[in-house]
Amino acid sequence: MSDLQQPFTLIPGAAGSPVLLHVPHGSRRIPHHVRRGITLDDPALERELDHITDAHTAELSAAAATLAPVAPWRFVNNLSRLVVDPERFPDEREEMLAVGMGAVYTRTTHREQLRPPEDDPSPLLEAYFHPYADAMAEAVEARIAAVGRAVVIDVHSYPTAPLPYELHGTGPRPPVCLGTDPFHTPPDLLAAAKAAFGDRFGRGGIGHDTPFAGTYVPLRHYGSDRRVTALMIEIRRDTYMTEPGGPAGPGLEMLAGALAELVRSVSSR
Question: What single-letter DSSP state applies at residue 71?
Fold first, then answer.
């Protein structure tokens, strides 16, 4: 089975690297049997994918891995987040349930119907969400077994203008937003990211938990294992691409350099 047919791919890095670049929202692929459960027509679905996909983040992460002196490992979702969103809580803990965007979305970015609200999410959770979560946890545990720690760097993008689904869209929208977790994001990791991206955008171009907060840690480790540290990188799309859903521009290379510098910094600690 090719990588594009697999739901996700773990791309090996250096044996001694603690870093796992996580790319959960960069794909537009929806399997045919999942597509049948989505109520949007084809043009509307393409527009929704333009808005919801973190376009070019897989390419960004691949370029950064090539530039980094010690290659990070990469965990890449090959399916659209419209199949399942692997970064949501799969239960009532998820605040995005309020707008129909829990682990299995029933609403779009513009709060229109994506799936019938009465649909049972369990088949999609069993087929896609739980296997993804288990594989990501195993990838983290492999880094801990190899080097004693794991650093998850979550690679995302976000639109220049807020979309209706955003619960916290009224705050600042800097070129780079760094999402943190009080348990899993130590000060030195946050400082390394501010330095790496601040060299490109200036310190005024770096935000902290605005407009998006938090970061991804496998539930198996969340809130309990300090060997797992994590940071979310949210990049405003106008810095590197044509919105919505258009081609990448020259900013992608600059961002890859910044991400590679962050990888270098945390790998050497």
Answer: P
Question: Is residue 69 reached through a cis peptide bond, with omega within 30 degrees of 0 on the bond before it?
Answer: no
Calculate ∠ Cα 192-233-151, nearest 5°.
Answer: 60
3-state secondary structure of 26: coil
User: In this structure, are residues 242 and 127 in contact, taking their beta carbons and an 8 Å threshold?
Assistant: no
**What is the maximal distance between C-alpha atoms in the chain?**
50
Strands (E), the chain: 8-11, 19-23, 73-77, 150-158, 176-179, 206-208, 228-236
For residues 256 and 60, the answer to whether their CB atoms sit within 8 Å is yes
Q: Beta 206-208 vs 73-77: how paired, if at all?
A: unpaired
d(CA 150, CA 77): 19
Tell me the C-alpha distance between 87 and 217, whole Å: 9
* pTM greater than the 0.85 cutoff: yes
Query: What single letter denotes the amino acid at residue 92?
Result: E
Helix or strand or coil: residue 120? coil
| Residue 110 CB partners (closer than 8 Å, separation 6+) | 51, 163, 164, 165
CB 133 within 8 A of CB 86: yes
CA distance 127 to 104: 12
Residue 4 pLDDT > 90, yes or no? no
- 177: three-class secondary structure by DSSP: strand
> Quick check: bond before 121 cis, omega within 30?
no
Q: Please tell me the distance from the alpha carbon of residue 269 to that of residue 262, in angstroms, as a whole number.
A: 11
**Tens-place pLDDT, residues 16-68:** 999 999 999 999 999 999 999 999 999 999 999 999 999 999 999 999 999 99
